[in-house]
Amino acid sequence: MKEVGEKKLPKILLYIFLTISALLSIFPFYWMFVIGSNTTTAVNRFPPAVVPGGNFGANAALVFERIDFFGAILNSIIISTAVTASVLFFCSLAGFAFSKLHFKGRDALFIFLLATMMIPPQLGLIPNFMIISALGWLDDLRAVIVPAMVTAFGVFWMRQYMSTAVPYELIEAARIDGCSNFRTYWNIALPAVRPGLATLGIFTFMGTWNDFLWPLIVLKDRSVHTIQIALRTLNDVYFTDYSMVLAGTFMATIPILIVFLIFNKQFIAGITDGAVKN
User: For the chain, which end, N or C, has fewer CB atoms within 10 Å of the first or last residue's CB respectively?
Assistant: First the structure.
């Protein structure tokens, strides 16, 4: 009986830890909704409001008046979806080549690719802006989509995932059956790495959705603003209505939550896959 009690106690402590961690993770979203559903005056009082109020609809209406909220959401969805789809395709294709194909200079090229991850992205702002300007893509969604169509991290992630998830025996069997390299990648490799694709897809979608600096530089026209830039315009010079801003921010997080809820099983499988392999 003593051993049963000793084994039960760590499980209880684990559940308590997980419950506290979940509450701490949810609290920022709850607090965002509390501020967004109250007035700025109520939030600035001491002690501040800690329960949701009844002004969320009024604050949301102010957001819709100040900015083209749904237009900005649509622009963000188009950009995030296009970038995510292209990253998944090109990075998985490159990862397949680096992990399963043998060609001259493969390892040196992969090391060079990894070295590019050490360069701060801010150093590429001016050259990228000059290229986008020369192409005439300013105030065009292509200015945000094209530079992000493939990432070094995505190639690295898919290369490492395919190295363990796709056995060489499957590749050799496909070649014996007469499959080309692309058909082997499409019909053999991709189905085996769906959890890894889902994980990379969620990271890419969230990163693109929350991107602020590059869209701010190349998208000046209000009609092509992403939701992050549109929310920035809610701040006045002399006064900021935090309730209105947080109401808009809360609504802007809903698409990300929906994407995560749809792909969370594949995401968890992708994260834990390496832990259950023998």
Answer: C
